[in-house]
Amino acid sequence: MPSVPQYRPFLACFPYTTDNQSKKENKRTVEKLYKFSVDIGKIRRLKGWVLLEDETYVEEIANILQQLGADETAIASILERCPEAIVCSPTTVNTQRVIWQLVCKNEEELVKLIEQFPESFFIVKDQENRKLNIQFFQELGLKNVVISRFLTTASNIFHNPVEKNKQMIRILQESYLNLGGSEANMKVWLLKLLSQNPFILLNSSAAIKETLEFLQEQGFTNFEILQLLSKLKGFLFQLCPRSIQNSISFSKNAFKCTNHDLKQLVLKCPALLYYSVPVLEERIQGLLKEGISIAQIREMPMVLELTPQIVQYRIRKLNSLGFRIKDGHLANLSGTKKEFEANLDKIQAKKGRPLFNPVAPLNVEE
């Protein structure tokens, strides 16, 4: 390999070099942005390099947004949050517009998406891949609203060649069938998995195979592995066997249980596989500090899905109603925010209920 110099100039570590610093702002760009009521100061603070570019397309990009129905306020917001939009050529932006309209045909909704996720819209590379992947996802049966969510929050999957994404889908389908899943349920399972975690497409086929083999070696049946995949929304494939093994070993020691008992705990709370050892340790210690025992956690391991801050908040709420969590079951503590609030309402209603029914007739002798 070629030798690497031991030292480099300090400024070489930064893309914004003295060459850029010595350049002056493009006066025409600044004037045109002012025309659209854009906060120039905000751009200078966040992405000042855009103002130094010799060639920009402020009016052209604004016109495209206007054609979609964006008002002045929306245009200003988009250009402030994503000023690099003005260095994109109008041709590529128009192509992007056509591609996004494949899944978002309502222009008003499209403008809202662009205003909310301008960086995703103005990523104008790999446009042919993007178009072919959208068509492939539509053929799979994914709804346009789900695909539009992918465009805004999981744009990386569209950089994959469509053949790679097709290959990953085939591997997931084969894995599902090999684990005992039925052909009839496979499509529903696959679409649900993709909608919950599109990043699964960024995995490698070798990683998926390795993870499945590791779980089988740990004694999980095919049916149980399918359960884990569904409950963890496919995030299990993003873990390496070594990290899973570390979490399993820690949990086994923390709960003083056998391999069989630990497997039952994992099936109740698959997050035991997903969370790293430091996270599990922090959450168990947080529960112990609140007076909750290891035995209680073993009985309701799902409580480990809550952060220590959420646990403290919920315990205070329960204590205010006279419910001592450390003396009872943790069912009232765990669950989603909606489930916890419903439990609070039930406890409060029970507490305020009279000991006798005031409208019921009393059996007394006259």
Automatic annotation (TrEMBL):
Any one GO BP annotation for this protein: termination of mitochondrial transcription
Protein name: Mitochondrial transcription termination factor 2
One GO MF term: nucleic acid binding
Presence of keyword Chloroplast: no
Subunit structure: Monomer.
Cellular localization per UniProt: Mitochondrion
InterPro entries in alphabetical order: MTERF, MTERF_sf
UniProtKB keywords: Mitochondrion, Transcription, Transcription regulation, Transit peptide
